[in-house]
Design goal:
About 5% of the residues have low confidence. By secondary structure, the protein is mostly helical. It has a three-stranded antiparallel sheet. It contains 15 helices and eight strands.
């Protein structure tokens, strides 16, 4: 048993020794191979590093060479630019030298010309001195002759001339003093006028708007430009055709028509509304529409008169009187609408006549026609009662009616009780609270007088008072009035207005002369 154990141990020892030897041999082989590989790798790295160093060196050399070439080009360019500038400067210097030489030649020529001119002037001066001495001698001779002819000495003539000049200076000074005084009066009244205007604005604005102003609504403010037209030609044509002042201001979507004549204002309102609806706004179209509207309103006036007669139960009135009754709608009496006032007087007269057992139809007829004279052309002078008397008599009204019309202001004697009833009814209608406004009537009368004065001159076709009487436009007949006479006509009208009327401030007189030539191609 022990022998076997020893054998096993021996065998194991032999195996251990063999394993050690085998391991040592393998390790020595592997170490030699590792060194060889490391050396080869190191050689390879050194070789690659040499190549890379050569490449880097080559690249750096190329970069340096490029930089040198770039710097060389910049230097060459700069040298060329400086050379070019020097050449330009040389050319400029050469041109300046040439210019200076030319100027020198010109100056030399001018000096020669000046010397020649000086010689000519010296000669002319001698001639002038000789002529001046001759003129002095002639003046002395003429003075002696004038003294003999006028039998005045030179001192006496000077004294007379000085007196005339002093008188003229006094006249001019008086006129200047008058203007200064007038201006001072105007300035002195401004504060009072401001206070008065504030009161008027509180009490009379509504009435003024109703009596003298109409407002036309428009779709948008762009329409205002079309109404005015290019350089204002449309608005001028409209104002000339209607005699109404057109106010286009900042009021949104509205145009204001201003005129004291209600008929003209109504024509303008309807015409402007139709022009806006039609869209074609130009002078020829404006005149066409205005003429058409005037014809239509004339027909409406006729219908208004007929309706009034039907309303009052009257008949047998002459057709011309019916037209005058319709015109009352566009007239006012002291702030009252003339037609409404006349209807009111007719009813009152009829009621009182019925109470007294008089003819109610004649009473209403006389009451309706009592102010018919106010519808006659404003150029016809005379009290409206007598104008109405002549008108009703002309168209064969009943004598009682004719007498009542003429006597309701006691211009003629009353011949029947109905005349007294008409007078009483007229006073009742006008005396009720708020019926009349005296200042408005006087204002309208002043505007009518203003138009009448301008219309009294020869060659005047139409006259329109606008701007609340601050301006009157006079349309003349171009065949009878030329441009020179137009200027004189404006001054004469202004002078006559100044002599015959009283008014605040000043009135502008504008004379319009328009020539139109029409031809037809057939």
């Amino acid at each position: 048993m022990q022998v076997d154990l020893l054998i096993v141990i021996g065998v194991a020892a032999v195996f251990v020794v063999l394993a050690f030897l085998l391991g040592w041999f393998i390790n020595s082989k592997l170490g030699k191979n590792s060194l060889v590989n490391a050396k080869e790798k190191a050689d390879r790295l050194i070789e690659e590093a040499d190549k890379e160093a050569k490449n880097i060196k080559r690249e750096k050399l190329l970069e340096v060479k490029d930089e040198w070439l770039k710097k060389k080009q910049e230097f060459d360019s700069e040298v060329n630019n400086k050379r070019q500038k020097l050449q330009n400067h040389e050319k400029q210097l050469e041109s300046r030298e040439e210019s200076l030489e030319k100027k020198h030649d010109v100056v030399s020529q001018k000096e020669k010309a000046i010397k020649e001119a000086e010689k000519a002037l010296a000669t002319q001066k001698e001639d002038l001195e000789r002529k001046h001495s001759e003129l002095d001698r002639l003046v002395v001779d003429q003075n002696v002759r004038l003294e003999k002819i006028a039998q005045l000495t030179a001192d006496e003539a000077k004294k007379m001339l000085m007196e005339n000049m002093i008188n003229k200076a006094k006249t001019d000074a008086s006129q200047a003093i008058k203007e200064i005084r007038d201006q001072a009066k105007i300035d002195a009244k401004k504060e009072a006028q401001r206070i008065t205007i504030q009161a008027i604005q509180r009490t009379a604005v509504d009435h003024s708007v109703e009596s003298t102003v109409s407002v036309v609504q428009i779709q948008n403010d762009e329409m205002k430009g079309r109404i005015i037209g290019r350089e204002g030609r449309n608005i001028r044509a409209f104002e000339a055709a209607t005699g109404v002042d057109v106010i286009v201001d900042d009021t949104p979507e509205a145009v204001i028509l201003s005129a004291f004549d209600q008929f003209r204002r109504e024509v303008a309102r309807i015409s402007l509304e139709r022009l806006i609806a039609d869209g074609r706004i130009h002078p020829a179209r404006i005149e066409e529409i205005v003429a058409k509207v005037e014809l239509e309103l004339d027909e409406e006036i006729q219908k208004e008169g007929e309706n009034t007669l039907i309303q009052l139960g009257l008949h047998g009135v002459h057709i011309e009187l019916v037209k005058h009754i319709g015109k009352m709608k566009y007239r006012s009496s002291y702030g009252q609408n003339l037609l409404q006032h006349s209807i009111e007087v007719a009813y009152l007269t009829g009621i009182m006549a019925a109470e007294l057992g008089l003819d109610t139809n004649l009473a209403r007829r006389a009451g309706l026609l009592h102010d018919i004279g106010k519808t006659i052309d404003r150029n016809v002078e005379g009290p409206h009662a007598l104008l109405g008397y002549d008108l009703t008599k002309k168209y064969n009204e009943h004598p009682i009616v004719v007498n009542a019309v003429g006597s309701h202001h006691e211009d003629i004697e009353m011949e029947h009780p109905i005349a007294a009833l008409v007078q009483a009814a007229d006073a009742i209608s006008g005396a009720r609270p708020g019926a009349r406004r005296e200042p408005l009537e006087s204002y309208v009368k002043r505007l009518e007088n203003l138009e009448a004065i301008a219309k009294s001159f020869e060659g005047v076709a139409k006259t329109y008072a606008i701007q609340a009487g601050r301006e009157v436009r006079v349309v003349v007949e171009p065949d009878r009035v030329d441009d020179v006479f137009s200027d004189r006509l404006a001054n004469e009208i202004a002078q006559k207005i100044q002599e015959e009327m009283e008014y605040p401030g000043q009135i502008k007189v504008m004379v319009i002369r328009e020539v139109r030539k029409v031809a037809y191609a057939k």
